[in-house]
Hints:
alpha+beta
Amino acid sequence: MTTKLAAVTGAAAVALTGLALATPAEAQYREKITHDPSRCEAGKGAGVWVTINEIKESKGTIRVQSYRATKEDWLKKGRWIYRMEAPAKAGSMRFCMPLPGAGHYGIAVRHDLDGDGETDIFGDGGAMSNDPSINIFNLGRPSYKKVGFDVGDRVEKISIRMRYR
């Protein structure tokens, strides 16, 4: 009887472990982090150094968000993986964006000039990985196919150009 109980308990533990690994998918979204350059050191796993160029002014906030470059996730509400914000500095800024692992990702950047947390299409700036065309035809939301880049188990480097209206 003890052997059967141990077997059942062991099987239940394995099943629960499988559930624990399967359920955190939602936990992989919407994590606010701070810029930490040490997370992009060699041997720290997947990540990307994001250099943002042509920042118009040293006012407001720069927000950088990582997404999986998939139809289901790219620019979908609440589907960002990590978000970091910092006071804007004119010219260029550099951020270390850790990623959950090897995969296909996209980066979206917004410069909220007045820092009110609202998107002002006539003043705020925007940018995305691979610098895709942003226009009225794609409503400022280029396809995940245009922004996606691959990351292995190391840190990559990308450069993004801010655009303002």
